[in-house]
Amino acid sequence: MDLTGYLKVGRLVGTHGIRGEVRVLSDTDFPEHRFALGNQLFLMHPQLVEPFPLTIQVCRPHKSALLIKFREWDNINQAEPYKGGLLVVKSDDLVPVNEDEGEYYFHQIIGCEVITTDGRHLGKVKEILPLPANDVWVVDDRESKKEILLPFIEEVVKEVNVEQKRITIQWMEGLGE
Q: Which residue intervals of the chain bear CATH 2.30.30.240?
């Protein structure tokens, strides 16, 4: 699926009940905004030629996922074929963030080169794990070919330059283990 022009906000992982509700795993830092009642998302799926617009009618948390009822689907048969699909928004539909206070979009961080304060190039951020305490940035280590898990905390992340796609960190004992 070509995500050019779109930002991924969730994954449709299953159905729930017979009235068209679906289970969604959120891939956004702004679930309360993205999955608000009346918001429009687009469904991308291999069976679809174009992204399909869906409007949120009901959204509620359920275990580690969200249960969402879209206006366009009235029963399980309409939702079932699209399991595994991605929920996206247009890339210009951004929620305001304050970069001065360390707020960034996932797409701004993924792909950034990570450099230590002493000039060592570690690799690029390939994934972000949103955890309760803080996000963890997964970096592909060039030298060891392993992953480095960087906590997004003040003591480690010293500078983020999204224009130059560069992140400067303070190396701490235990990061590469």
A: 99-169
